[in-house]
Design goal:
Elements lengths: L1 E10 L2 E11 L4 E5 L6 H8 L7 E8 L2 E5 L9 E4 L11 H11 L5 H11 L15 H13 L5 E5 L7 H16 L3 E5 L3 H7 L2 E6 L2 E7 L9 H9 L10
Parallel strand pairs: 3-8, 3-9, 6-7, 7-8
Antiparallel strand pairs: 1-2, 1-4, 4-5, 9-10
Helix pairs in contact: 2-4
This protein binds adenosine-5'-diphosphate and magnesium ion.
The site of adenosine-5'-diphosphate has 11 residues, from strand 2 and helix 1.
Length: about 240
């Protein structure tokens, strides 16, 4: 469970997140949605402890252990993240990208863990290629696999559906569902309402630097936030109220 207490984040004079007070579960699939520029990626960076809030505190309770930001606690690699501009080391092959975190952590079972990931994400056809030689969907899977080699308990993923065609999206969704059913907590920022409707256990809507609505998937039946009402109205989905 995350507990956010008066969380705020600024970049220079620009207040990006303000006055966020909430509790967010970390089991199951949490889907984060909202307009572009509303602060979703910033929220994800704070929740992953990669950046610290300028105001307030973020407490994370993860399988009995507590972490606080700001503070010296770092939940990595029990918590890992895949950012929006997914990054693979360009001068290393996909295989070397997968091995490096394990070698850096001096794991004994590098070969086994990497083989498991290649199998899970069906990557045997392209693991020996460099990142600029694989498709967007393959790079996305490789970035996800690399975030998973260290066996995280919680993984935060920023817009994994961006740039993927429908088939790649459904392959990715199958992987995400498998991860979730294996007990890994997932936080996923996405613009895909379809994904939220099918897979979200919890929804967090970010608008204008704050959380405008949150709750279980059922909030989609009677959305109150401007963003959800607008998106669902435009998409012609029952429950949405079109706004001008
Ligand atoms: P979203 O992911 O919802 O599109 P972001 O969290 O990326 O939104 O950005 C929210 C706002 O914060 C935007 O106005 C963006 O320009 C600003 N912002 C994000 N990161 C930085 C940064 N590192 N430095 C300055 N401004 C930033
Ligand atoms: Mg973003």
């Amino acid at each position: 469970m995350y507990t956010l207490n008066k969380v705020g984040k600024q970049y220079g004079a620009n207040s990006v997140l303000a006055h966020i007070n909430c509790k967010i579960p970390v089991d199951g699939v949490v889907v984060v949605m909202g307009p572009s520029g509303s602060g979703k990626s910033t929220l994800l960076r704070l929740l992953s402890f990669v950046e610290r809030p300028d105001e307030g505190t973020i407490d994370l309770k993860l399988n009995g252990d507590s972490f606080r930001s700001p503070g010296n606690d770092r939940p990595w690699p029990r918590v890992t993240c895949v950012f929006q501009k997914q990054f693979l080391w360009p001068h290393l092959t996909v295989l070397q990208n997968l091995r490096l975190p394990l070698e850096a952590a001096r794991h004994q079972d590098v070969d086994e863990r990497v083989a498991k990931m290649i199998d899970l994400f069906e990557m045997s056809g392209f693991v020996n290629r460099f990142p600029n030689e694989v498709s967007g969907g393959q790079a996305q899977r490789a970035a996800l696999a690399r975030a998973l080699v260290l066996d995280p308990e919680l993984i935060l993923i920023d817009e994994p559906h961006g740039g993927l065609d429908l088939e790649q999206q459904s392959v990715l969704n199958r992987h995400l569902v498998d991860l979730s059913s294996s007990g890994i907590g997932l936080f996923i920022v996405t613009h895909s309402l379809d994904f939220a409707q099918v897979y979200a256990d919890h929804l967090v809507i970010v608008e204008d630097g704050t959380i405008s609505e949150m709750g279980p998937r059922e909030i989609l039946e009677h959305p109150t936030s401007l963003y959800l009402r607008r998106s669902m109205g435009v998409a012609g989905v029952a429950g949405g109220t079109p706004l001008n």
